[in-house]
Amino acid sequence: MKKINEWKHIFKLDPAKEISDEHLDLICESGTDAIIVGGTDNMTLDGVLDLLSRIRRSHTVTCILEVSEEEILTPGFDHYFVPMVLNSKDKKFMMDIQHKAIKEYIDMMEFSEVFFEGYCILNEDSKAFKHTNSFLPDAGDVKAYAYMAEHVFHLPIFYVEYSGTYGDPKLVEEVKEELDNTMLFYGGGIENSMQAQEMKEHADVIIVGNSIYTDIKSALKTVKAIN
Questions:
Q1: Residue 202 near residue 177 (C-beta atoms within 8 A)
Q2: Backbone angles phi, psi at 102, to 5 degrees
Q3: Which end of the chain, N or C, is more open, meaning fewer C-beta atoms within 10 Å of its C-beta?
Q4: Which residues are annotated as a binding site?
């Protein structure tokens, strides 16, 4: 199993969306470095457990739970990613949800498996942007958030999230220049191999999500495109 700093590609599965057993098998056997289970709305513990059990039934791919709500926390995942939305105008998405989760579930969590992510959501039309009451930062803001993620909060991951829309490769390149030790994750709108290659030139890890449900063949090709 690869260490996180060796990862290049992650698929993100939403437990609130339907995926066939056939397509799930293809995703798990694609060669991706890991699968994140996470989403913005309609997240339930039952949905998370169902998806995890389907993955674990036949596959050994690394599984990550992205803890957007403390109610979905459950044992059985290899890692737990805890997002801190740096451009949210609401403190609860930066600190309060995370504090509550740690307070209530610290005995269940092995902290060597927990990674806090500095999130910056850049698609103002997305559910995630609206749900977290975020504001749209300019390039200078994003680079400052990246600097803070590494040098102020010492976070292992800074996540540039365009949430369903393909982002600006130039901005991703500029953000990468601010980071030395913190890993740069990019997610949003990657639908084909060309986009995967373009963003992987700058990001340490790309995350592919929506295209799993719209064009599974193209989604699968993004793995080989960057390896």
A1: no
A2: -65, -45
A3: N
A4: 12, 14, 40, 159-164, 189, 209-210
Determine the Cα–Cα distance for residues 27 and 182; give it in Å rounded to an integer. 27
Please name the residues in contact with 129: beta carbons below 8 A apart, sequence gap of 6 or more.
121, 122, 123, 136, 163
pTM of the model: 0.94
pLDDT > 70 fraction of the chain, expressed in percent and rounded: 98
CA distance 34 to 59: 11
Does position 50 have pLDDT exceeding 80, yes or no?
yes
Residues counted in the chain = 227
Give how far the C-alpha of residue 148 lies from the chain's centroid of Cα atoms, to the nearest Å.
19
Residues within the annotated binding site for Mg(2+)? Answer: 14, 40
- pLDDT (tens digit, 9 = 90+) per residue, 97-126? 788 877 877 776 676 788 999 999 999 999
The contacts of residue 67 (CB under 8 Å, 6+ apart) are 73, 80, 81, 82, 83, 101
Instruction: Summarize pLDDT for 132-185 with one digit per residue, the tens.
Output: 999 999 999 999 999 999 999 999 999 999 998 999 999 999 999 999 999 999
Residue-range domains of the chain with CATH: 4-225 (3.20.20.390)
Percentage of residues of the chain with pLDDT beyond 90: 80
Q: Which residues are annotated as a binding site for sn-glycerol 1-phosphate?
A: 12, 159-164, 189, 209-210
